[in-house]
Amino acid sequence: MRFSLSEINADDLVNILAGDPEELGVHLQLVERDVVIDGHNVKIHCHCLTVDGNGRVRPKRLAEFMRNAVADYAIPRSKLQQARERDFKYRSSSAVAEIHRQACTVFTDLEKTGEGGELLLFLLAERFLKIPQILCKMDLKTDTRMHYHGADGVYAGVTAEGLLKLYWGESKVYGDATTAIRDCLASLAPFLAEEDHEGAERERDLVLLSDKADLSDKSLTEAFKLYFNRQSPLSNRVQYCGLALIGFDADIYPADGSKIVSEELVVAAKKELIRWSTNVGNRLKLEKLDQFEIEFFCVPIPSADEFRANFLEALGGTR
C-alpha cells in the first residue's frame, strides 16, 4: 500500500487506534463531554470512577485496566504488530507476552510518578476522542527512574481539508484541582504558544516526529513524516492543539467506604464541574491559551496518592 500526500485522511489515523472503546466505560463513567467556555476554544470532558453493583468504586480495577494497556502505550506500533504476526504464525502468545513485560519495565517505580496520568491520557485520547498517539516516547527512555522530557504525549488528527492537527499532551495528577489545572496548562503553554524556531520547547519533539513517528504502516508513516520536514510545503499544514488531563482528589466520593449510587455521583460531579471549568477558563487567559484548540479531561478521583500507589502496585508483579 502506498500513500500520496493527499491520501492521508482521518480514516487512516482512526484505523491505527488501539483497544476497545467500550472497555473504558467499565472503569470510567462519563459525567459531561464537550463543555465549552465562552471566549475559549477548549472542550472539557469529565469522567469519574464507575460504581459497581455493590455501590462501591474500584480504583484498583482502574489501575489493573491501565496496566493491561501498557504495551499499546509504551511500545511502537510496528514492533507490537510484528509480535502479533509472529504469534499468529506460530499459534502462540509468547511474543506479545514478552512485549508486555518489556513495556512494564520502562515505567519508573518512583513513588511520585506522573506516568500513570500520562497513560490515562493516552487511553482517553485514543478510546474516547479517537485521537491516536503517533510518537511512542516511552520507547526512547534511557533510564527507567527518569521521566521523559518534553510533552507527555504527541497525538494527531486530520481535518477534512487535509490540515494535520498535532495534539501536545500534558497530564497532572495532584491532590488539589486548582494546582493541577495551573501546572498542567503552564506545562502545555510553551508547546502551543511559542513562536516556531530552533530554540522552541516543542522543537526536540518535532525532530523526533520527523524520525521516530510510527503509524504501523511503513508507507503511511513515511508520508506522515513529510509534515515535519522543513523542506516540504506540508510543514505549513500543521495546526498545534492541546490534550490536557488533570486527576485530583474530590470529595464527591464517600470518605468512609460507604455505598453510593452511580446517579448521585454523577450529579455531584456535574455540580463541581462548574467550579472546575471556571478555574480552567481563568488559567487559559493567564497562559494566553484561549485561542488554541484544547481537549481537556477532568478526572476527579478519591485520592491522587492512592491512584499512583495502585498503578505502581499493578505494575509491580510484571516487572
From TrEMBL:
Stretches assigned to the Anti-bacteriophage protein A/HamA C-terminal domain: 32-315
Pfam families recorded: HamA
The protein's name: Anti-bacteriophage protein A/HamA C-terminal domain-containing protein
